[in-house]
Amino acid sequence: MAPKLKDPTLLKQNVCYINGQWVKAQLGNTFEVHDPATGDIIGACPDFDRQDTEKAISAAAAAFAEFRTKTGRERSKLLRKWYDLMMLNAEDIATLITWENGKPLADARGEATYAANFFEWFSEEAPRLYGNTIPASVPGNRIVTLKEPVGVCGIITPWNFPAAMITRKVGPALATGCTVVVKAPSETPFTALALAELSQRAGIPPGVFNVLTTSHEKTPQVGEALTKSPTVRKVSFTGSTNVGKLLMNQSASTLKKLSLELGGNAPFIVFEDADLDAAVAGAVASKFRSSGQTCVCANRIYVHRSVIDAFAAKFADAVRGFRVGNGFDKDATHGPLIHARAVDKVEAHVRDALDQGATLVHGGNRLPSAGAHFFEPTVLSGMTASMALAAEETFGPVAGLFPFDSEAEVVALANQADVGLAGYFFSRDVHRVQRVAEALEVGMVGVNTGLISDPASPFGGVKESGFGREGSMYGVEEYQVIKTITYGGMSQPLQK
């Protein structure tokens, strides 16, 4: 049975939001969206193509001319109104997230609030976009800088956080005076369209916030329309490293500004002096959040050899307490994976590890009785660097435990990855805490915690995890350009 929304008008079928209007694809094509837990059809969305996308870009460009002139305080009030409406409708947003993404409703409620908080945060940043006065080296000159909006922005978001990945990008874009074209993920478009409905109610001017949907098959041409358009001056993308490289290559033709938040392979280190109970709680939160389907999930769990048996026992006991099921089931702690390809990858990583001598501590199997996209939360021990899980991001509910013997050894293992998004470690040695935090080649470090996301905290990676930062005081800079103004002849004597 389909879930009920308190406000059914938030579920937008067969239309996208372009230039303040609800429109269909010009060719009338649509694609179906399925519930990952049941396989049932949720509804249909327009299958936009290149020409549809170009119309959205034109709408954003036309709106930019006026929106950029609004004061920071005016933009702040718009974002604050949007935030208020998101909080007022948080339960319906959470319902849509669970319905099309699969995560348990409690997690979806957390995301709905987290997503709204980005609008609150950037509503407070909007009036404070300061430039500088710079002392000149030439007598009589005066130098000032202005921070201006970069222009029309193409926003490409993933399915794992259907609301928060949009608001984390759109919040700073609108705060600075940019306009946006959002390509919603084909797996989870209805949450994005609900945000569009609320933007209209909040009074966001037509053309400032545009949302288009497209099928998996047409996604490449829509992405190319955004990256190669000379009108689009910035692209922000969250997704895989391979796709990020493709988009960066396409964007080179117009030298766009880019923010790329790409794949991760997060190390999670438990030192011999760690509080094991705290480390287990942190590992559970980091590894199994959203059934392991986040880019900052722990992927390689390194545990000092002297405590690995004790840690494994406590960790497995915690995992045995999970209840896998439909996200709307009140007892479910973990939902399905997003699609069959995700299940296949998880299963392949488990089989590869077992074939190479790993020990299955818990789980390891599909759960066909629950549905086609369900996989048991799994714990493996005796992992080695030659196993696929050591080098590839699993993006699923599989925790592999790797033993280590020294600080230098584990830092070297942690840094072997080509990516560097997040890393975690647990220790009670204050000197080690500083040493290891500085030595890890990642953009974000969690020390004695498994949860690091916060609107106030800069989010982003290094190496092949991309570049740019989202959220925080730094998030607005990604949507700005600096203009320098030099005034000459300013040292004339005072007139008498």
From TrEMBL:
Catalytic activity: succinate semialdehyde + NADP(+) + H2O = succinate + NADPH + 2 H(+); succinate semialdehyde + NAD(+) + H2O = succinate + NADH + 2 H(+)
GO BP field: gamma-aminobutyric acid catabolic process
The UniProt record lists the keyword Oxidoreductase: yes
Cross-referenced PROSITE patterns: ALDEHYDE_DEHYDR_CYS, ALDEHYDE_DEHYDR_GLU
Entry's EC annotation: 1.2.1.16
Keywords for the protein's UniProt record, in alphabetical order: Oxidoreductase
Pfam entry (one): Aldedh
GO cellular component terms given for this protein: cytoplasm
Database matches in SUPFAM superfamilies: ALDH-like (SSF53720)
Record's keyword annotation contains Oxidoreductase: yes
MF annotations from Gene Ontology: succinate-semialdehyde dehydrogenase (NAD+) activity; succinate-semialdehyde dehydrogenase (NADP+) activity
Pathway the protein contributes to: Amino-acid degradation; 4-aminobutanoate degradation
Gene3D superfamilies per record: Aldehyde Dehydrogenase, Chain A, domain 1, Aldehyde Dehydrogenase, Chain A, domain 2
Every Aldehyde dehydrogenase domain range: 22-485
InterPro entries per UniProt: Ald_DH/histidinol_DH (IPR016161), Ald_DH_C (IPR016163), Ald_DH_CS_CYS (IPR016160), Ald_DH_CS_GLU (IPR029510), Ald_DH_N (IPR016162), Aldehyde_DH_dom (IPR015590), Aldehyde_DH_Superfamily (IPR050740), Succ_semiAld_DH (IPR010102)
Active-site residue list: E261
Similarity comment text for this entry: Belongs to the aldehyde dehydrogenase family.
Name of the protein described by the UniProt record: Succinate-semialdehyde dehydrogenase
Upper lineage: Eukaryota, Fungi, Dikarya, Ascomycota, Pezizomycotina
